[in-house]
Amino acid sequence: MRRFRTHILVFLAPAVIIYTAFMIYPLCDSLWLSLNNKTAFGQIFVGIENYLTLFRLDKWANPFWNALRNNTIFFVIHMVAQNPIGLLLAALLARRVRGSSIYRTIIFTPTILSVVIVGFIWKLILNPAWGISRSLLASIGLAGLDNPWLGLESTALVTLSLISVWQNIGIPMMLFLAALVRIPEDLMEAARVDGASPWTIFWRIQFPLILPTVGVVAVLTFVGNFNAFELIYATQGALAGPNFASDILGTFFFRTFFGYQLQPADPYMGATVAGVMLLIILTGVLIYLFGWQRRLQHIQY
Amino acid sequence: MMKSRFWQTVGTHAALLAYSALALLPVLLIILNSFKDRMTIFSDPFALPTGDTFSLDGYKTLTSTAHFELFFLNSFVVTASSLALILLVSSMAAFALAEYKFKFNLLSSLYLSIGIMVPIRLGTVGILRLMVSFHLVNNLWSLILVYTAQGIPLAVFILTVFMRQVPKDLKDAARIDGASEYRIYWLTLPLVRPALGSVLAISMLPIWNDLWFPLILAPGEATKTLILGAQAFMGEFVNDYGAVLAALTLAILPPVLLYLIFSRQLIRGITAGAVK
What we know:
heterodimer, A: MetI-like fold, 14 helices, globular, B: mainly alpha, 13 helices
């Protein structure tokens, strides 16, 4: 029987205490609040009633389903634009042409900036008052296409999604690049000797070998998108205009628990929105862990 | 055969060059115009500032109306303190998880890794209640503690992987010489310096760039961070292009400098976190 080793406790305690007190406890407290509500007699346990209110009562359900639908569109645009373009850029960088590392550094630059800054940069550029987008489009003969994209209900959400893609593309690019450069050169050289085109080599050799990274990128995109807030808040304000056309779960959560203008703060319903977001994110992560990662074969080079 | 190789290289350069322009030009446009007078910003946004059109009016508005030095200092204090705490407590925990066999080892690592995937933001209602009861609202400590909690999971995960690779012989030799376990932890740290650098680099920017927690926990004038201060300023002066462009330029500089200094560690950190 070994004696109790105090030093293990000393090493673990600070991290576990800070993490528990400021992350796990607040998450549990928030989940508990979502199962309660306040009445004339103080706080009482109401079970899943808040969740039913959120899903069904028009006053809550309309903005909630709107935000969820917008958030889904936001995510889909990232999946079809950000990740394939990120993969394409990584595949080009992996060819190791001269200056690759300079290209990589430049393309990653928007990713390191604050979302608030990126939002404002594009807000200025797309603002008809400055006219940058109009003169650029005019120079390629497409002046007729110019619109106040952030100000129209029909285009605001797609425009914001593309701004977010512009900023975040560096992350899939880096991850795909790291996976691509680990593939042994011999494999590709052998295919090249057999006369395979770069296109064939990419789809037959490189892509199957980076499938694990495809999964990582997808789940990171999912978690990041369903947790997004800053871009919409910085460019469109907490009301996620025009007329809530760009409202996503993050902005809806903010207005609900913090209150905004005429809407009073409601910690119980706020915690409920956070509970739904947690459920969505956990579902995504679990699908990834059990549906995707487990089926992959581990390859040793 | 040689010829098609050549054209492939040309095509690669063309595509990368085009995307680099798309990534960089919007940022350059902002910086460029922040040094021009109001007339030229609108009449000729793509021109470089010349002797006639050079102007620092935007920066003057900025310094006369907002306390950007204070906001910068707040951001610096919060980021530096959180990073120091993250590195210290995470390396200690990672050392324990990598070095010792004990009953709750696996359970502790699993518990600590929940936070890698679950965003801390979803506990905001609870965090705000906690900070109100500790009287830490509008106090920089609220941000430091939250960012430390947010940084711990990934830091412990990455550091544990690297601490496991430190050879056992070294540590056992030190033990034979009578070193305490605390001393051995201290001797291990320099051996995982690259990993500490990566953790530093990937934890830094999310803290510096965050808007959510400063907005909710520390919105007071005295505790605003640079990003919150810039956001409030730009919202208020939205029609004064010179001032907004100046604020944007000042806010772009710190992360770009940090990026240039730490890019190697950052790239290694991003891939270490996701691949392992």
